[in-house]
Each structure stands twice: as structure tokens, then as C-alpha cells.
Amino acid sequence: MNYQKKPLPILEQIDKLQSRGLIFDDKIVANNYLSNISYYRLRAYTYPFQNNKDETADHQFIIDNIHFSDIIDLYCFDRRLRSLMFNAIEKIEIAVRTKIVQIYSESTNDSHWFVNPLLYREKFVKTKGGEEIDAFDVLMKDIKSEINRSNEDFIKHYFSKYDNPELPPAWMTLEVLSLGTLSRMYDLLQKSHEKTEIAKEFGLPNDFIFTNWLHAIAVLRNCCAHHSRIWNRRYIVNVILPYNTKYPFIDKKTIKIIRSNKLFALLCCVKYLSDVISPGNDLKKNLMLIMNKGGKLLSYKEMGFCLDWKELPVWSI
């Protein structure tokens, strides 16, 4: 099937949305918004309120009295929430790097411990062509690639002065790795006292849960970094919510009703780790300020929030 849709001028985009039931109070203002925020990007925020199942309905709005300004309110809420999460995750990412580097470097007494294959469990991954290759080899390849892309002065200094070992020491190399690569590294490391100690440093009972959290948070971080919608997304990683954490989190009864692939579950994890890293942080305060300005279309339920969520131990601090 050939794609045959033609590009639409902005005024025609407005007319199309209006014909589907969206109300425009000021088309000049709308034209300005659509000149700076693409029609297709805003589609992610109109989509939940349109009939997208019946082809004959032509994506008509299924809720009455939705204004273009309501869609913009929702878009701005999501943008502010992404910014808040990105900043919170930055602190988590830096803390995770620091713990991994310090604990493994001291334990092994080796500046380049991360290239030792004996520290990693045996695992194979499939390529797009179906070939199975060693996950450790893939990890090392990705680490080298990220090192080569780095413009950090300390990386340049290492290569200008040393030619052996091939890569900079752990405290330099891990500093430039993406959270996704760092998450895969932690996952691939053998089960050990060091790996468990890192999890416990963040108040979690075991490395299995911490691995899951790192993966989930890395996915959220990438959504934020690429300006993707986060407010009502169903995430690819189901978050494990433990009830035996070192610090206040969520009670066992409530854990059973929280949807583990929705944003609220992730927010709880980010808040918990933020409290461990930076006690007395203002994450809850800033989140409330953002949510109070979310507009009339904002649904807490669609983000996975439970009733009385502010009374949960992790949010009552």
C-alpha cells in the first residue's frame, strides 16, 4: 500500500481539527502554536480523545467541548513533567555511576575491572539476522563506541598520554556511558557481594530489583531526552515494586493495585531513589505544582495514580 497523504498548510491543519470537533477560540494563536509545535507532535495529545477505531469516523473527537487550548495545556504539562523527571534522573544516574565505580574498583583493586570477562555472567543475545553473539562482546563494543564519541577533556587526555590499556580507567570510562549502557553493564555483572551492596546502598533488598529499576528508569530517561510523551504511556518495562525496602516506599496492599507499566509506578521509584540520594528534596512539591496546572484533560488515572497516593509512605515525606 502506497502512502498518499499530502502535506497540509497550517490553516488547513486547523480546519481539519475543527471539522473533527476540536474547538478553536483564536485561530491566530493556534496558527502560532502549530508553527512551532508540529501537528504530528500534538497528535499524541489529541489521540486519546478521538475515535481511532472506526475508519469511517475520521478521528472525530469523542468528548464534547474540548478546546485547542486544552490540548496545549496537556502538552505543556507533559513538557514540564519531562523536564522534572530528566533532572531527577540525572542525579540518580550520577549516583549509580559513582557507586558502581567506587565499590568495584576498591573490591578488585583494579582500575580496569570492567573489561574483565570473568566478572560477567554468560549471556548471548540475538542479532537482527538471528545470529547469537556474546552479550559481553556487545557491551564492550558499545562502551568503546561511547568512549570514541566523547568530547570530554579527561578522555582526550588519557589517549594523548597512554596507549595501554586500550580504554581509560573505570572512573573515566563509566563517567561517559549512557544510563542505558550502564544499566546493561550492571545487569550483566555476575551475582556478587559487590552487586548486592550497590543495590543496598540505594535501599533496595537485592540486585534483581535494582536491575529492573535501572532498566525502567533508563527507558523513562530516553523518553524525556527525546521529548516523547510520558503522561499516559504504557512503558515496555514492568516495574517491580518491593514492600521490603530499607526506607519508606509503598505498603504491600497498595502495591497489588498499582499498574506496573504506567508512569506512577516509575514516579514512585524515582521519588524513592531521590530520597535516598538527596533527603529533603523538593520533587513532590515540584510535581504537585506541575500537576495543578495540568488542565482539565489531565487524568491521574491514565497515569496510573491510585487514590490517596499522596498518603503513601514514599510520597508523605
Summarize the structure.
This protein has 317 residues and is mostly helical. The protein has helices spanning 10-19, 27-36, 39-46, 68-108, 135-149, 153-161, 170-173, 179-188, 193-201, 207-225, 252-255, 263-277, 283-292; strands at residues 124-126, 132-134. Helix 9 crosses helix 10 (207-225).
Helix content: 40-55%
Structural class call reads: mainly alpha
Give the end-to-end Cα distance, rounded to a whole number of Å: 55 Å
**So what's the overall shape?**
globular
Largest sheet: 2 strands, antiparallel
Mean pLDDT, all residues = 95
Q: What is the overall number of helices?
A: 13
How much of the polypeptide forms β-strand, as a percent range?
A: under 5%
Please indicate the count of domains: 2
* Order of adjacent strands in the largest pleated sheet: 1-2
Count of strand segments:
2
Using only CA atoms, what is the Rg? 23 Å
Order of helices and strands: HHHHEEHHHHHHHHH
Low-confidence stretches: none
Commentary on this structure:
The protein is mainly α and 317 residues long. The chain has 2 domains: 10-66, no CATH class; 75-311, no CATH class. 52% of the residues lie in helices and 2% in strands. A two-stranded antiparallel sheet has the order 1-2. The longest helix is centred in the N-terminal third of the chain and has 41 residues, at 68-108. The termini are far apart. The model has no long low-confidence stretch (mean pLDDT 95).
